[in-house]
Amino acid sequence: MPSDSFGNCNVLAVHRSFSLCLCREYFKMRYLLCLGRSFSCRHVRFCHQSVYNRHSSPRRIGVDLGEKKLEISSGKFARFADGSAVAQLGETSVMVTAVSKTKPTSSQFMPLVVDYRQKAAAAGRIPTNYLRRELGTTDNEILTSRLIDRSIRPLFPPGYFYDTQVLCNLLAVDGVNDPDVLAINAASAALALSDIPWHGPIGAVRVGIVNGEVLINPTRAEMASSTLNLIIAGAPSSQVVMIEASAENVLQQDFCHAVKVGVKHTQLIIHAIQQLAREQKVTKRTPIKMFFPPAEMVERVQKLASEKIYAVFTDYSHDKISRDEAINKIRLETEEDLKDAFPQAEPFDVIESFNIVSKEIFRNLVLNEYRRCDGRELTALRTISCEVDLFRPLHGSALFQRGQTQVLCSVTFDSLESSIKTDIITTALSGVKDKNFMLHYEFPPYATNEIGKMGGLNRRELGHGALAEKALRPVIPKDFPFTIRVTSEVLESNGSSSMASACGGSLALMDAGVPISSAVAGVAIGLISKANPQKSAEIEDYRILTDILGIEDYLGDMDFKMAGTSKGITALQADVKIPGLPLKVVMEAIQQATVAKREILGIMNKCIAKPRESRKENGPVVENVRVPASRRARFVGPGGYNLRKLQAQTGVTISQVDEETFSVFAPTPGAMNEAQEFISDICKDDQEQQLEFGAVYTATITEIRDIGVMVKLYPNMTPVLLHNSQLDHKRIKHPSALGLDVGQEIQVKYFGRDPTDGRMRLSRKVLQSPAATVVKTLSEKQSISMGSNISERSDL
């Protein structure tokens, strides 16, 4: 805008110039103008220019990550947002925006929403639904949104309860570089370059291992042969804020090395984003209010309830329900006293004062006295029991109990046609086309003694199921002839239900007779830490807990879930609640989880040590049926009629393997017997074997069609088409031109079966000549001494 735009301006001129301003100050000042407040032209010019400068100068910075270069830019797109950044790797580009309200909410938690949406246009496709629009939310979108959320949430300041939304917009996807890790880095840059209070930035990379070599941000082709898929988000000073990994039984030392290499490269991204922030001279806003209860209220709670709370946490006779009831009783008594002593206090301050004191007592019990609320040692497991083959009709079942966490797992087999087929957009973006193994996790409200809605799928259930599925997928045989579905229903929950699902799923698979390569067990590791008073981002002291309870997860600093076999790691997920974990703590957690995993596997092996040698009698059956080309038309039927009839009557599923082989899946052996009888009856064709090539037979017309006539050579034969072109030498448009009618007998010559489609080849035209011809007839009584009959060998 020219510098003299505001010269001799009036209210209308100011109003027009504001319409060009790309910032929220425009809306604030317009509102004040409507109230009759006046501003000088100098003041208006200052507001406009300061905000415009923040958004108008695009900046770009590159980060060398081995052979690849990550580029992060800002200042060009979405300048209304508080923060906006684009991350690009290869030809894949992701834009992320961050917006946070300036007015606090009434919630008692950080109201952060992260939405990652797959864009069909970014992959060069059009959605195939009716409206040709992106509808609903796919599993991949939800899992990636959770990935970003878990990476950025720990770095928001405590007490910052302002609605914040992070949106990820896929601009372009090249099919080589995956956009999920780019979205994490773009979200980090958008928040760091905004005025939103956030203790970032962070950096994220994907780490793979191909032929023993560690690769950073491998391509999709390289990931196809990688034994590790590790996504790690790092914070400044080589700290870790999030880990998500699936692996094909990777050894512990190799996994730890990959983590260290990944953290090293995240620091390069962090430095680049910090440089961008310095160049743009980012200034963070000061919130109107940070939600902390007054110190005098906290002190009063300490005097009133500290001893009572301590007594509950050191009473090892309590279980989850009784402990919660005892704490809630103390809470109600204390809150009543606080309301009387501080009548003007807000409800949040009253509730949070008690929470702070109870959390401090619980954590000090672990840090100072090395005691847990259930009496276990810091590295001890809860009591574990296992049981398999609970219900005979199920293909496989298991019950896994760890303390007060109980999970019932079942295995179901179905045909390979039942495998999950991803939509074209997910296929284009992630490369996954289908999968024949799935694990579905269910968490009903009664598992925690609550009442809630049933049905639908929330993000937590999807995330926990995906983690347990990652843990089991590497041990599933790739050539298994069925689609496998494991359902995991949490019946009781007191911590680490996802890892219990991995244990129960492994037992159920072995009970079902799936030849998995090794049993899989999982465990959750927790952390109680003490921050350095001078540097809150540093840990002064800490304790690592094995097999954490629900309360240890809620009041602790980390939920570190790891699963694997006796040899290596198959899945890992680390959720951190503090601004970062030192690498030393991560390595100790991996080691402690490895020891616990082996102990759990020992207990599971006492229940069932290896997969059943054969599947259960009532299990499904798969057989291959060879159908010669001569029988294929009869087997399939007109328009697939016979196949559809077979599947509807017997419940089997039929799929074609190659030209002559069909795979028949039957849910039970009885269904397979029915299908075999049906197939034998359909394909029964004894008299056709007696037909001679070149012989002439009497055929009966069964149907008149526009293109020809349908004829039978013998009574139980399936009618075949004799085309108009083979009825007579002259060209006809309809068989009626020759006076043909249903029931009429005509002579035809047999020329065998078509080698491509197996259809019977007949001709009446070749017989419409003066040459004498010997006619052969077939009936149910006439089937002997065919070899002695005379046949005419003439060509078409």
TrEMBL record:
GO terms for molecular function: 3'-5'-RNA exonuclease activity; polyribonucleotide nucleotidyltransferase activity; RNA binding. One of its GO terms (biological process) is mitochondrial RNA 3'-end processing. The keyword Nuclease applies. It is a peripheral membrane protein. The keyword Transferase applies. It is found in: Cytoplasm; Mitochondrion intermembrane space; Mitochondrion matrix. InterPro entries: ExoRNase_PH_dom1 (IPR001247), ExoRNase_PH_dom2 (IPR015847), ExoRNase_PH_dom2_sf (IPR036345), KH_dom (IPR004087), KH_dom_type_1 (IPR004088), KH_dom_type_1_sf (IPR036612), NA-bd_OB-fold (IPR012340), PNPase (IPR012162). Gene3D superfamilies: GHMP Kinase, N-terminal domain (3.30.230.70), K Homology domain, type 1 (3.30.1370.10), Nucleic acid-binding proteins (2.40.50.140), Polyribonucleotide nucleotidyltransferase, RNA-binding domain (1.10.10.400). SMART domains: KH, S1. Its EC number is 2.7.7.8. Signal peptide: none annotated. Residues 694-765 form the S1 motif domain. Keywords: Acetylation, Cytoplasm, Exonuclease, Hydrolase, Membrane, Mitochondrion, mRNA processing, Nuclease, Nucleotidyltransferase, Phosphoprotein, RNA-binding, Transferase, Transit peptide, Transport. Its main location: cytoplasm. Pfam families: KH_1 (PF00013), PNPase (PF03726), RNase_PH (PF01138), RNase_PH_C (PF03725), S1 (PF00575). Belongs to the polyribonucleotide nucleotidyltransferase family. PANTHER family: POLYRIBONUCLEOTIDE NUCLEOTIDYLTRANSFERASE (PTHR11252), POLYRIBONUCLEOTIDE NUCLEOTIDYLTRANSFERASE 1, MITOCHONDRIAL (PTHR11252:SF0). This is Polyribonucleotide nucleotidyltransferase 1, mitochondrial. It comes from Oryzias latipes.
